[in-house]
Amino acid sequence: MAATAIKQQIQLRRREVDETADLPAELPPLLRRLYASRGVRSAQELERSVKGMLPWQQLSGVEKAVEILYNAFREGTRIIVVGDFDADGATSTALSVLAMRSLGCSNIDYLVPNRFEDGYGLSPEVVDQAHARGAQLIVTVDNGISSHAGVEHARSLGIPVIVTDHHLPARHITRSGSDH
């Protein structure tokens, strides 16, 4: 069978970009176009610092999460950190495990599920994997805010869940072990 070549013309069209954005002149032209095309109008919008973050006390359920973690460290509870395989997920998984170890947690492991086999986030299948590894507490990083079925499945197995996630919820936030 002969291969048939499909010829198709593709026309590239530049996006309309507001070149009047007040971005630093020293930025390379490509970055200026990228930022402007995404609606960034000033250098202040690119500023991300600790000063712009919420005070930790305003994070939902944070005091209960600290209490759960403190007791887990003290009692030697088996903690499984469930992350994600992308850059922020891998980084937050590694950072969480290292931080908890440095704070005295001796019974900790991590699980980075295969998104293509297990779905995204804390799915019931991922909970089963953590349970098989002896999880007595699950801490999600970079996922979990919309994992209602997974959190409920963990609860049905008697495993509390602390959800840490920077994503926005689709409708309502998953009630984790630190919310009650």
Automatic annotation (TrEMBL):
Any one GO molecular-function label of the UniProt entry: exonuclease activity
Segments forming domain DDH: 78-172
InterPro entries recorded: DDH_dom (IPR001667), DHH_sf (IPR038763), SSDNA_exonuclease_RecJ (IPR051673)
Name of the protein this chain belongs to: DDH domain-containing protein
Source organism (scientific name): Escherichia coli
Lineage of the species this protein comes from: Bacteria, Pseudomonadati, Pseudomonadota, Gammaproteobacteria, Enterobacterales
